[in-house]
Amino acid sequence: xxxxxxxxxxxxxxxxxxxxxxxxxxxxxxxxxxxxxxxxxxxxxxxxxxxxxxxxxxxxxxxxxxxxxxxxxxxxxxxxxxxxxxxxxxxxxxxxxxxxxxxxxxxxxxxxxxxxxxxxxxxxxxxxxxxxxxxxxxxxxxxxxxxxxxxxxxxxxxxxxxxxxxxxxxxxxxxxxxxxxxxxxxxxxxxxxxxxxxxxxxxxxxxxxxxxxxxxxxxxxxxxxxxxxxxxxxxxxxxxxxxxxxxxxxxxxxxxxxxxxxxxxxxxxxxxxxxxxxxxxxxxxxxxxxxxxxxxxxxxxxxxxxxxxxxxxxxxxxxxxxxxxxxxxxxxxxxxxxxxxxxxxxxxxxxxxxxxxxxxxxxxxx
Length: 366
Hints:
There is one protein chain. The chain is α/β, with parallel strands linked by helices. The protein has helices at 29-37, 56-66, 80-90, 110-120, 170-180, 194-200, 211-220, 249-269, 276-295, 301-318, 326-335, 339-360; strands at residues 2-5, 16-22, 43-49, 70-74, 96-99, 105-106, 124-134, 164-168, 191-193, 224-237. Strands 1, 2, 3, 4, 5, 6, 7, 8, 9 and 10 form a ten-stranded mixed beta sheet that branches. Helix 1 (29-37) links the parallel strand 2 and strand 3 (43-49).
């Protein structure tokens, strides 16, 4: 069942823990931390420095020394991102938790809106919302630069929008997720009830590329899912070092990771669902369809052709029935066109398809 609402009373309390993991991201760290400290609810910030090698730990130390709400955890050796996430979240004292990458930021008022929705319905496990991408730089090359700067000035000015909300039954939301065949929340906009996170037991180290997706599915198997609609809830920074801004092989790896996340979820948490078999089959079909569609706009040349063949072969292995779908026919047509046709026909159609799909799925996520 889906419920909707237009307004909520302000959150009455409840500490929110914001965990900010980072490795050599000191140039972005002040914006992330200040965006958390500027929220309208009680917060604690835990910075987890994963043995940075470029002096970023000095920026983290400055931030921790400047505000008693900030705690710094420094790793003696690099533990990689999943273990770093779990280390920081294991230290959380808040009723709600946020995992905020050091290069991202929270939007003004986002945690108060999420907390109000949690308080409105105690059965909610996870709240998310709209994410806005940005590329503005706020690089701080030296530890003392952020003291003279205005870190939040690098973020887009938030538009004044009326806030409303949607709440789904967990299995219904999983059904939307499975039908989509790809991740719904991005990451910085997600707020989880800490008791749910503790029950799940942390991010899965076996899925470094899709551990967040598995976490969202597991949260939905344990409660309801809420979404704050209207205002931006978080900002996702685009830059060359983003872990998942990859091409060719990265598309294939991402698809395999999504497939593995669905498989592990239904294997472990399927017993919590009423119709796990139907949802698992829906997810397989959707992943295969998404993989075929992702191959369509790939450029020509040996590298692009090789990637396309591998993606289509994997799509067929996941769901043999994909060869009868419109997605497969479109992918095969695109593969048979020359570079010029792909530029003037295939790619514009793909751009239009993504715009339409973003509007259709706007009620679920960006």
